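Q: Can someone sanity-check these two? First one:
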Amino acid sequence: MRLYVLQENMKYRAMKYLASLIVATLALSVWGQTPALEGYTADSLIARGNSYYMQHQYNKAAEYYERVVDMGLESAGLYYNLGNAFYKQKRMAEAILFYEKALLLHPGDDDTRQNLALANSQILDKIDAVPVFFLKRWLNAFRDIMTPDQWAVTGLVLFIISMAGFLMYVVGRNIAIQKGGFAVGIVLLLISLLSVAMTLGRMQNIRKHDHAIIMDTSVNAHSSPDKQSTSVFILHEGTKVMVVDSVQRWKEIRLANGNQGWVPATVLRHI
């Protein structure tokens, strides 16, 4: 179980929060010894954030979680906790930002998706997305079933098993074993190569993610990177946009419905 901050009793929220803390700590452990910041390790900062959250001091909890982020560390669990802390403060733009960051690392997490949907329901802009071609939608959904590490491990395991199949083909003493080993080896080798492709696809999606969240209360999108140009539409905090171009201190953005415009770079925070 993980933290879910809406419509739950305090005991259940506490259990899920502690589980989420463990997830974040385990994810950070891949870095080895967690670095220290002003005498604190990442683990101790998360523990302090946990303590403040349980005391309903959500601003202090978010402060300690963000100090972990400032160390250069990240995990889906950490971003999820940050999103919850900001949601409790009714700071929807920040909540949406960190829920989106959590989903970028762990797209299949139902709790994060549900909390993000609740946060999105409380912002002003309701933008209907242009439908995505079904094959691309299915491929993206399949790619996002697992994290890059999970895809990589899956590919490695299947590759090893496929080699065992080929070994059966080489040393088998009858035709049936040889044919079976060869068939299994070919199929698993192809699936392992698919896993490698999914690993690279997920990593590229994370590295080159070009979406951002509007952080200002409201902002005019212009027809060109100039305050004197025509205002084409107005956006409000919490809206997700795609960044398609950049000119000095301006960003060209595209909405989910296909509309485009220019906004100052300072109103955005990249996911």
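And here is the second, same format, sequence then tokens:
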Amino acid sequence: MNKIISSHHTDLYKSKLISAKNAAQIVKSGDSLLYGVFLGRPVDFDRELASRKDELFDVQITQCAGLPSDSPTTCSDPSGKHFTCNSWFFDTGNRRMGDKNLMFYNPVAFSQLQTIIGSELFNYDIYVQQVSPMDRFGFFSFGPTNVNSLESCLGAKTLILEVNENIPRVPGGSEDSIHISMADYVIEGKNTPLLSLPAGKTPTDAERKMAALLMNEIPDRACIQLGIGGLPNTLGELLCDSDLKDLGIHTEMFVDSMVKMFNAGLVTGRYKTTDRCKMAFTFALGSNEMYDFMDNNSVMASHCGRYTNNPEIVGLNDNLRSINNTLMVDLFGQACSESAGPRQISGTGGQVDFVQSAFKSNGGKSFLCLSSTYKDKEGNLKSRLMPMLPEGSIVTTPRTFVDYVVTSYRPCTR
């Protein structure tokens, strides 16, 4: 079969090619930029933009996690006169920058992102995202970063795509690609390796105990969502050694343990109501082996966040099991999953979306998990189960939505 890219698409591609340096020259003082989230965040463009710092003032950049702690634009301007950097979700790098007042958090649930970006109240001039190389039909895949990508592309006054050969092409789903005709400029990037998460730390005794408790709550044919953190991944590893059958995956974040679950034959998706026999997700973060697994794999279904995080859609699947970490729970039943007092640690993300989804699912259950104690910087043992949340704490999941709380019990002594 002839798979040559049409000359029309090739000519259109060539006419839009621009260097990262020249693309950065398009930015003017006062412009608002939106970057692709997580692994869609541009690398070469951002580096070149940072080199123009002294020429520019009051440039707003909004992004979302997935970036190294030495991000050029973010770290180049401690004064904030040139670049103001905002994030929808804090990862470790964002958190460190936030502590230095180099990054500001924009509170949002991921199910809201597309609506916010598409509204008249959210204005941005330029959108830049890393994408896969163009296919023979003229499409660039968003790969491991769907979320709000197409919405952001269509709403931008200027759309710049940064091609990276390391971005896997992920077929299927919805709003998973963009056509060359819709782009204003294309940068052929330096193919920077994708951010690869290090192998998880050895699970603690508490995590193993909690994972074992959760195993008893997962039936055959359950539909699984795993959140960010050690415990969800530990559970995923334990599931691989179970005799469960015909599990389904509908998740916000696709992680390595889901690949292992599929390869172990646990995941078929045949009893899901949506995306039958597919693993539905909206973004992925993990190992290079996981990214290779995703590339042109028909079992994957890459959807926009408006779909994956919509309780009305997710809740159509029976026996949904939503499993997420939280930081603190008080005796009112409120869960703080994103801050230590007023210090922003992460973000709302999709936790509330999936808690609500489990409520709507026939037989569904959501679990918020936390170790009962931790040690502070001085080595003092502290409780995560509080009479009341500490002053300034952010309530991520209100008590009206909390379903099950999973924890380990260890006496906390003074």
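A (reply): Looked at the second one. The chain has a mean pLDDT of 92. Residues 205-215 form the longest helix (11 residues).
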